[in-house]
Amino acid sequence: MRYRRGLSDKALKLWVEGSIPKLLLLPILDCIPDDPCALDLQLRERGVLQVYHGNTSILRIATNELGNTFQLQFDAYDSVVKELWPSLRREWTIDEVVELSERLRETLLVLVARTGQPYYRNKKEGFWENQLCCSYGRSWTPKKEWLILDRQAVIGFASATDRTKFYEPIVKRHTAARQLLFEKQGRKWAQPKSIGNELDLLVVNQEREVVCMELKHESNSDGIYYGPFQAAVYRDAFLAGPLRIQ
Questions:
Q1: Is the residue at 128 inside a domain?
Q2: How many C-alpha atoms does 164 have within 13 Å on its Cβ side?
Q3: Most exposed: 57, 91, 183, 222, by fewest CB within 10 Å?
């Protein structure tokens, strides 16, 4: 099992010292001036940058091992981009980043407009995940009580079989405790649902403690009532070893 979010030395030099941050990241961060938190950037395995609009992943930027070329992956919107901007899906060199940046803003605006209302514009969980990641992520300062390390956090495994074997006893234990609470309560506040495999937010507090956080909107009574069991599953997963965090 693994949890890797670091950049290689070559990728770090490319993103920090190269022209990509200014010419490629700014069109993403400034895509919607009236809503600077509409798009959120997260670091993934192998130095991949993932762009979220609410609960929807609309773009991944992946560099090659040498750090001299990169590709854009549009996840759920790949067919849309293939139809409207087929050339965007090819491999790009560093020298072509100026041309790409001019077209990327237009593309992202279209993809944002096509994102369904439940994922952001209804101002529920996806909307607030973006707002929190913006405030306690890229706009973080040492005075703030939280630093968000990751959203939709996932522990990596060598195979799906290994993942199932690892999570099965943890989920079983907390599902049983949740069911016991459901059976004991005098009033049925909510119907239990299956526990997912992604953690909403992984944060560090001012005491340098890593905290597993599940974000629920006030309209989601089921999620609010049983959310602590869901967070407890991820807590136990991150506490279990051997987990190598990079």
A1: no
A2: 3
A3: 183
Separation CA 107–CA 97 (nearest Å)? 15
Report the distance separating Cα 58 and Cα 81, nearest Å: 11
Query: How do residues 209-237 score in pLDDT, each as one tens digit?
Result: 999 999 999 888 888 888 899 999 999 99
Co-location of 92 and 170 in the same domain: no
Domain that holds residue 241: 140-245
Query: How many angstroms separate the CA atoms of 113 and 100, rounded?
Result: 20
Residue in the structure block whose two tokens are 């009532």: 225
d(CA 92, CA 65): 14
Comparing C-alpha atoms, which of 121, 155, 151 is closest to residue 136? 151
Query: Which structure tokens are listed for 95?
Result: 């020298």
User: pTM higher than 0.90, yes or no?
Assistant: no
Tokens 């490319």 locate to 14
The distance of Cα 150 from the centroid of its chain, to the nearest Å, equals: 6
Per-residue pLDDT tens digits for 50-76:
999 999 999 998 877 766 778 889 988
Distance CA 22, CA 186 (A): 58
**Are 23 and 107 members of one domain?**
yes
